[in-house]
């Protein structure tokens, strides 16, 4: 039997990476955080002072660098050309520029190829924005994870405050809405729910409840493959 390929898409703060890490572990699948790849390219572009609208330079950069992941007890570390950038890719500066960088066709082509190469080698649970539509259109399971914007902003707010950041809730909510609009409005592989995706609205649900629902959806898909 071929290993399961699970596509998990949805807007910012829906809980994708949190639940994906744990669900992948329970299912014995490799977790692939595609947002971290776009963040890695954005981080490197900022380091090299490449303008986030310079398509040629961003495309060249995406084809030049090597992005890899390493499993840790806490989740996953991200490396670019061997440098650990796990923390560096979560700064407000990277978050503020990542949507522009990830809208560039050449960047998307390079990242989608990398994502498809990983999925060709192993069973995956991949999270992102275009996994069910573009990266793995024939995935065995497609889940669209969402929650109200209020709740998504509150979750992100709690997370950043716990890390010691000072921020304004309304500003954070407006930033999330702006990023969602940009991600769903771009020309190349926009954030979009696949027609055959299962919608999972996580508003009011705990992390554990969401993981259980994902495992239920995956086990019925796995049973169909037997
Ligand atoms: O965790 P958070 O929701 O903040 O975002 P992320 O998953 O780390 O993704 C960061 C950004 O990368 C998104 O806002 C998108 O602009 C872009 N992205 C994308 O274009 N396609 C993907 N498959 C994943 C992320
Ligand atoms: O990857 P994405 O942007 O979709 O979201 P995330 O970074 O996994 O989750 C954003 C925050 O929401 C994290 O701090 C999670 O712990 C929290 N969360 C939650 O409170 N309840 C859930 N059901 C899922 C996530």
Automatic annotation (TrEMBL):
GO terms for cellular component: cytosol. ATP binds at residues 10-18. One of its GO terms (molecular function) is dCMP kinase activity. It catalyses: dCMP + ATP = dCDP + ADP; CMP + ATP = CDP + ADP. It holds the Pfam family Cytidylate_kin. SUPFAM superfamilies: P-loop containing nucleoside triphosphate hydrolases. Its main location: cytoplasm. Its EC number is 2.7.4.25. InterPro entries: Cytidylate_kin (IPR003136), Cytidylate_kinase_dom (IPR011994), P-loop_NTPase (IPR027417). Keywords: ATP-binding, Cytoplasm, Kinase, Nucleotide-binding, Transferase. The keyword ATP-binding applies. It is found in: Cytoplasm. It is an enzyme of class 2 (transferase). Belongs to the cytidylate kinase family. Type 1 subfamily. This is Cytidylate kinase.
